[in-house]
Amino acid sequence: MPRPETDASILHVDLDAFYASVEQLDDPALRGRPVVVGGLGGRGVVAAASYEARAFGVRSAMPMVRARRACPQAAFVSPRFDRYQEKSREVMAVLESVTPLVEQLSIDEAFLDVRGARRLLGSGVEIARTVRSRVRAEAGLVASVGVATTKFLAKLAGDLSKPDGLLAVEPGTEEVFLAPLPVSRLWGVGPATRKRLERMSVTTIGELAVLPESALTAALGPSLGQKLLALAHNDDPRPVVPERETKSIGAEETFAVDLRTRDACDHELVHIVDRVVARLRDAGYEARTITLKVRYANFETKTRARTLPEATLLSTAILATARELLDAIDCERGVRLLGVSLSHLAPASATQGTLDLGDAETVDDARHQRREDVERAVDAVRERFGASAVGPASVVADGTS
Fold this sequence. Notes:
By secondary structure, the protein is α+β, with helices and mostly antiparallel strands. Among the domains are: 18-82, 3-Layer(aba) Sandwich (MutS, DNA mismatch repair protein, domain I); 175-232, 5' to 3' exonuclease, C-terminal subdomain (DNA polymerase, domain 1), CATH 1.10.150; 248-396, DNA polymerase, Y-family, little finger domain (Dna Ligase, domain 1, 2-Layer Sandwich), CATH 3.30.1490.100. It is built from 16 helices and twelve strands. The strands form three sheets. The chain has a five-stranded mixed sheet with strand order 5-6-1-7-8. The longest helix has 26 residues, at 360-385.
């Protein structure tokens, strides 16, 4: 069972309607209006909707065509991911000034462990109030916060506090708090598991909590049954981990019109590789495995992967491998989505020092370093003047010196 706590000190911080809120922050004319962020083409989907738009039934992942029908008066906006990353960094800086124990889950969501900050900043609830106030004052955004003794319960409390709320679950009251909630609130309970539980006359967390473990594991299997029973008793020993290892970096594009030729797919592949390699360099990594993802017009999805002998961060090398993977794809079937992800990541190698150009292998190293320097320079120009200031580095660099 979880250890007893005298104060709830795990915080879950979630920015409300983040993308839409940033758009409303930057454009005062959008404030108080329904705002929908996402792909504006015929096949676009909703990435975020303001609470004004949600009142009309607009939700994330909804096809944009349905969103326009549900709320035609909304402002429909293309996403600006660079701007969202910038605002995310502002918020994370606020959180990290409160405690070094910040585990960022996504661009707009993080766990905090504030046990070490309580002596200076007060109780978990007082720190949560401070966090909400500072995020609003310093970043101009609204954060909802859940406070509890475990990550599971803090996340659940944060979800229930939305929008613009703070909900704390005091130590000793956790199971009373959980008991009336639907079992779907437990991590791991999807539609199929919920139906199985309903056949056992279990619809609430409290009803699940009193089941014998043997009955639950017989119905759901040992792993899921034990996990759900533990969560129903607020047994979640996972710590807040400040740094999460990046396992892969990717980019993909859904097209308004299906691509039906190899040339068309190759043209889009160049731009996708360019984007994903820029993200790789920004993160300070190089990659060994390149994975190509293709979704056909009938929604069938295929992936192809290749692992290189050595890790690289050069777009020319990654593009060449992605093109080889594309050779196995029948583009004439109609390609709806194309994506590239990079994995088997490692910290990027340090720049080499003085080079002896008399050695052939060292000449290759020098050529490799020059190309890397060129690609980094392109990134710097884009960062200053915008993404369209320079064409894809992989188009300019054709693989020769």
